[in-house]
Structures are given as structure tokens and as C-alpha cells.
Design a protein that fits this description.
Length: 523
């Protein structure tokens, strides 16, 4: 039998390396042609008997991975399940990774009935969990992908989320008996499963698996482990359907606790703020979470500013960015402008403070979000109370500076470096939807000169931000009957209209390098 499948390892190494490094997508014909030259049993035999041949295992694994990802290659996997099972428990990490990838290909590209039958019949799921806990990073990732594929089947859901919580394969039981690294990997799997679909997320929630993330953060004294789990929670809150299910947990209260903990590492508080901002940037978060919890977490952020004025610049920027994330939604902006006093005051103060560049930049972008630059047209303006507070905060800030007026503040922003100017364009684009802001900006010729100057910006982002700002100011101008009929400002409107007509890059069309042909000097 060994002679039948015996091949020259040097020849196999060269052919497998060439095959694995072929450019572009691999066709079924190419895979079949290679296996005609080197039958799959011969490759498997070489993997088992020539493990010490330099470079052979790596080349064969890469080659087989590409083969199994073709339709033809996938059709062979059911006939070689014993090899796959051995691979899942192999000492070689590359072979284990290949085995996990083979299971993913089987589940994703084979007849559903056959795929599930094979996985159940051969007890593959516990072996995948073993790879998740004991394998290296690449093996754990491949195992996670295979389990995610298995979760797309009803039979897989029953195995992954068993009714009996005492099952050894129940993820809560698995986490309980794993090392800290193993627990983090189980939590990462839970997050990946949660993100798959709303139905899988529902099973995760009903199995109380989200509570494992809370428990790990609450009970761990290891900053790196806590930070790893917070990163997973950040990934979790980015999922579209997360708000509904997270509202059934205590994660928001946990975040408040971390933000309020002055003894905690600054990086943990910063990450907790960013997670809070991301979670509350969704409109539906305010429908699913009770108001007291929302106000508690905002209060926790508010109180941190008392300690951040002169130190912890990174944490301060994170706090400002988090408020901007929250303020990007209608409900969020309304809330941060409606607290007593409004927590948005920190954003306004920092936005026009030129002492710290990073802090000012974060605040300007956040204030742009609060003003509605990212919201749809019908949600830019907030409630009357929130709008009055926004106006008051900006006028109060202006009165305490040498600029005296909001237009003076905005002009000073546009006179700074490119990064600050871009944030300023965004801020004006949002604020100008308000009548008071239009009346501040339109008569200020210096502002109009800057936003209509097509040579000011040299980057794509800057040019586009400036052009959008022109469009926003012009829309606001034309919607104001008082300004539209004022002949004094009509010339400014014409400048805006001309700048819009030329587009964001219009002025630079003629400034491109032109080839020149000159007569050579002859002696």
C-alpha cells in the first residue's frame, strides 16, 4: 500500500509549492489535474511519513487548502473523513488548521444533509472545540470559522447550544475549566456566533453566554485579559442587532463602573468610554435601555472630565470622541444636550481651545456629529430645548474669548492647519442648518472666502469636506427668505454657487503636470 502511494518528496515539494503559489482563483480543472499527477492518498501518506522533510509539510498543507476550497476538492472531503479526524487531533498546528478549514469547506459547499450527517456521525464538534482551546492562533481562528459554519444548520444550533447546561461541550462549562487564554477564545467564539445572525444571537442570549463577558471583566485582575474582553465587547456592540440583546444584560452598568473607577488603568476607562459611545450611537439603543442607565453612564463620563483637564490627554480625547459617537444619533445628541448641566459643554469648550491639538481635533469632530453632520436631513435639528442649549453653549464660549461671536470662533478654526480645517468644515456643515448660525456665517466674508477657495485644500478628504460645506451653507442661504432677498449678501451666494458648480476638484484640472517637448541643444 505504501509503495502504491509512494512519491519522491523532492518532486512533490516542488510541485506543491508551485501549485500553492498560483495567482488568482483556482479552477476545478486545475485541482483535478494536480490530483491526477499526485493522488490525494499519496499526498496524505507523504504528510504522515515525511514530516521531517524540510518544507514539505507546509507546502502540502497550503496546496491542500487551495484544493479543498474548490468545488471539486470539497467533493473529496466526505471520502477522507478519517484523515480529517486525525488532522483535528494532530501534533502539527498546520495540519490541525487544514483539518478545520476542511470542515468549513464541507459545511459551506456540500449538500447540507450529507455535511451535517458526517459532522454528527464522526463527532467533529468536540474536536473543533479542542482546536479552539489548545491550538495556536491560526488553528483557533480556523476552528471558530468551522463552528460558525456549523451554527448555520438547525442541527448545529442544537449541538452548540444544548438544553443541558452540564454538557461538557456547553460553552459556559468549557470556559469554566479553561485557562485565561482559553476563556478569552471561548468568549471570542461567542461574539462571532452572536454576529452571525439575529436568530443565533437570540440563542446566545437565551443561553446566558453574554454574561460570561461581564463576569470575565468583573472578576479578572489581569489588565491584558480585561482589555482583551473589552475589545470583544466593542466588537459585539458593532453588530447591528446588538442593542436589543445587550439591554438584557448589565454591560452598560459594567461600563459605567469601569469609567467611574479612578483606580483602574486609564486604557481600560478609555476603552469603556469608546464602547459606550459605539453602543449608544445606535438610535434603537435608547428604545431598549432604560433612561436611568443611560444617564448613569453619561454622568460617569461627565465626572471624569474633572480629572482630565490637565492630565491623561488620551483618555480625554476618548471621552470627547465617545460623546461625539453618542451625539451622532438624534436621541443621543438630545440627551447629552439635555443633562443638567449639559455634558456637551465639555465638547464645546475643547473644540475652540487651541492649546491641545489632539483634544481640539477630537472635540471639533464630535461637535460636528452632535450638530448633525452625519444625520439625515430630517433629524439634523433636535428638540427645542436641546437646540437652545446648543446655541447657548456656543454663544457663551464665544463671549469668553477674544473672538466674541460664533462666527469669530468658526473663522479661527478655518485659519488653522488642514486637519483642524476639515473638522471645521464638518462642524459648519452641521451647524448651518440652524437659522442663528446662517446669520453668523453668511455676512462673514472671510469664512465664505475660505470655503469657496478651491485651492485651499490639497487632499481628497479636505477638498470633499470643503465642497460639502459650501453646499450646506448654500442650502441654508436659499432656504432663508430674509437672506435670499438681501442684495448685500447676494454676491457671497454667487461665490458659493460658483464653488459648488466647479466641484470639489474643479480648480485643479488645469494644474496637472503637462508633458513638454523641447528641441535638444546641438553643439
Amino acid at each position: 500500500m505504501e509503495e502504491e502511494f509512494s512519491v519522491d518528496p523532492s518532486q512533490l515539494l516542488e510541485a506543491a509549492s508551485d501549485f500553492a503559489h498560483q495567482l488568482g482563483a483556482l479552477s476545478d480543472a486545475s485541482a483535478q489535474e494536480f490530483l491526477n499527477r499526485f493522488p490525494l492518498p499519496a499526498i496524505i501518506s507523504a504528510l504522515q511519513t515525511n514530516v521531517d522533510f524540510p518544507g514539505l509539510e507546509s507546502a502540502l498543507v497550503d496546496c491542500l487548502e487551495r484544493i479543498f476550497r474548490t468545488k471539486y476538492g470539497t467533493s473529496l472531503i466526505p471520502h477522507y473523513m478519517p484523515f480529517v479526524l486525525v488532522g483535528l487531533g494532530a501534533d502539527s498546528q498546520k495540519v490541525r488548521q487544514l483539518a478545520c478549514i476542511s470542515i468549513s469547506c464541507l459545511l459551506e459547499n456540500t449538500d447540507r444533509r450529507i455535511a451535517v450527517q458526517l459532522v454528527l456521525q464522526h463527532g467533529v464538534y468536540p474536536l473543533l472545540l479542542g482546536c479552539l482551546i489548545d491550538g495556536d492562533e491560526q488553528v483557533a481562528s480556523a476552528s471558530t470559522d468551522a463552528i460558525k459554519a456549523f451554527a448555520s444548520y438547525p442541527e448545529g444550533m442544537e449541538i452548540i447550544f444544548p438544553a443541558n447546561t452540564n454538557e461538557e461541550t456547553h460553552l459556559e462549562s468549557l470556559a469554566a475549566k479553561s485557562s485565561s487564554l482559553g476563556r478569552v477564545r471561548v468568549l471570542a467564539l461567542i461574539v462571532k456566533l452572536f454576529s452571525t445572525s439575529s436568530s443565533v444571537a437570540s440563542e446566545v442570549s437565551k443561553s446566558n453566554l453574554l454574561n460570561l463577558l461581564e463576569a470575565e471583566v468583573s472578576n479578572s485582575n489581569d489588565t491584558l485579559v480585561t482589555l482583551s474582553v473589552l475589545e470583544l465587547i466593542y466588537e459585539l456592540v458593532e453588530v447591528q442587532h446588538s442593542a436589543e440583546f445587550l439591554s438584557k444584560t448589565s454591560i452598560l452598568q459594567l461600563l459605567s463602573s469601569i469609567i467611574s473607577n479612578g483606580a483602574a488603568e486609564s486604557i481600560l476607562r478609555s476603552r469603556a468610554m469608546m464602547i459606550t459611545g459605539r453602543l449608544l450611537s445606535k438610535e434603537n439603543a435608547f428604545a431598549f435601555n432604560d433612561e436611568s442607565s443611560l444617564r448613569d453612564v453619561l454622568s460617569a463620563i461627565d465626572k471624569r472630565f474633572d480629572f482630565l483637564e490637565s492630565r491623561e490627554a488620551d483618555e480625554c480625547e476618548c471621552a470627547l470622541e465617545a460623546l461625539g459617537q453618542i451625539g451622532s444619533s438624534f436621541q443621543g445628541a438630545t440627551m447629552i444636550l439635555s443633562t443638567t448641566p449639559p455634558i456637551a459643554r465639555h465638547v464645546v469648550d475643547a473644540a475652540f481651545d487651541r492649546q491641545q491639538h489632539g483634544k481640539q481635533l477630537a472635540a471639533l469632530h464630535s461637535l460636528g456629529n452632535i450638530a448633525g453632520e452625519t444625520r439625515t436631513e430630517n433629524t439634523v435639528l433636535l428638540t427645542s430645548a436641546a437646540e437652545e442649549n446648543l446655541r447657548s453653549l456656543i454663544y457663551d464660549k464665544a463671549s469668553k474669548t477674544s473672538k466674541l461671536t460664533p462666527s469669530g470662533l468658526l473663522l479661527s478654526v478655518l485659519q488653522q492647519d488642514s486637519e483642524i480645517r476639515i473638522a471645521g468644515y464638518r462642524l459648519i456643515s452641521g451647524l448651518v442648518a440652524r437659522a442663528w448660525c446662517v446669520m453668523e456665517i453668511i455676512p462673514r466674508a472671510e469664512i465664505i472666502d475660505i470655503v469657496t477657495n478651491t485651492l485651499t485644500e490639497t487632499t481628497k478628504m479636505g477638498m470633499e469636506a470643503r465642497h460639502r460645506c459650501c453646499e450646506a451653507i448654500y442650502r441654508a442661504f436659499t432656504s432663508s427668505s430674509k437672506l435670499a432677498s438681501d442684495p448685500v449678501v447676494s454676491c457671497l451666494a454667487s461665490k458659493l454657487q460658483e464653488a459648488i458648480r466647479r466641484g470639489p476638484y474643479g480648480a485643479r484640472k488645469q494644474s496637472e503636470a503637462q508633458p513638454m517637448v523641447v528641441t535638444a541643444d546641438r553643439f
